[in-house]
Design brief:
This protein has 245 residues and is mainly alpha-helical. Helices cover 53% and strands 5% of the residues.
Length: 245
């Protein structure tokens, strides 16, 4: 009888230890899965060489459209994509490490799961307000509505380049309304209602696309009357406008 009790007791203890072991393994497994899940969630905000996915494809599309990237839009973060990211970061005052973190994503105008809630806020685009967007769109429409889309973005980029330059005022409105800076302000065309193309061009300029390559001036040589403007160094010509520094 005692022997039978001992056997049953041993079996019960063995079963209990087995249950405990299963519980421990299950707990560790779930914990590691949770860690992996949160790590994956954080990785959405940090993309680098070797990363893949739709967000990488969006990055490539933006960089290709803006002239930074010439490779395939395949969603694979390779060496070419990294090189394009570094160039974009350098031109936009970001840490040029080739890693697309939150700040670079914001500069590119790309929202992620953790930042999408702020994308439609009153901050507008990349730190600019909705009023800034509207004013820049009006300037673009007034000054370049007959130009190509790239040419319109370039005009917007010149305004933003001036904002960043120590030689000009440091706000969009102050740059645009600086005395005699833009013909459209003098003749009243700044008050025309901008179309959707002008708004898109303003947003692309604010998101970092600069087809003017850092230019601070632009002019139409066929109608320009200032001899001084012809003395500026030409950077690029887009349509009827010459962009210069």
């Amino acid at each position: 009888m005692n022997k039978r009790i001992k056997i049953l007791t041993a079996m019960a203890l063995s079963f209990a230890f087995t249950c405990m072991a299963v519980a421990i393994v299950y707990s560790v497994y779930n914990t590691s899965n949770d860690v992996a899940f949160y790590a994956a969630s954080e990785d959405v905000l940090t993309l680098k060489q070797g990363s893949r996915g739709e967000t990488v494809k969006k990055i490539q599309q933006k960089l290709k459209r803006w002239g930074y990237y010439t490779g395939a839009v395949d969603g694979i973060f390779g060496a070419q994509t990294r090189k394009a990211v570094i160039l974009f970061q350098k031109r936009n005052g970001l840490v040029a490490d080739g890693i697309v973190g939150k700040k670079t994503l914001q500069a590119l105008g790309i929202s992620t799961s953790s930042s999408s809630s702020s994308s439609s806020s009153s901050s507008g685009v990349n730190g600019y307000t909705s009023s800034d967007i509207a004013l820049l769109a009006r300037l673009i429409h007034a000054e370049a509505r007959g130009e190509s889309y790239t040419g319109q973005v370039a005009v917007g980029a010149v305004v933003l380049n001036r904002v960043r330059s120590s030689s000009f005022p440091n706000t969009i409105s102050a740059v645009i309304y600086q005395p005699y800076a833009f013909t459209c302000v003098n003749d009243g065309q700044i008050n025309l209602e901008p179309n959707q193309t002008a708004f898109s061009a303003a947003k692309d300029a604010m998101n970092g696309w600069d087809p003017s390559y850092g230019s601070l001036y632009y002019y139409n040589p066929a109608i320009a009357t200032s001899k001084w403007i012809f003395s500026r160094k030409t950077v690029v010509t887009i349509g009827k406008h010459v962009f210069a520094i």
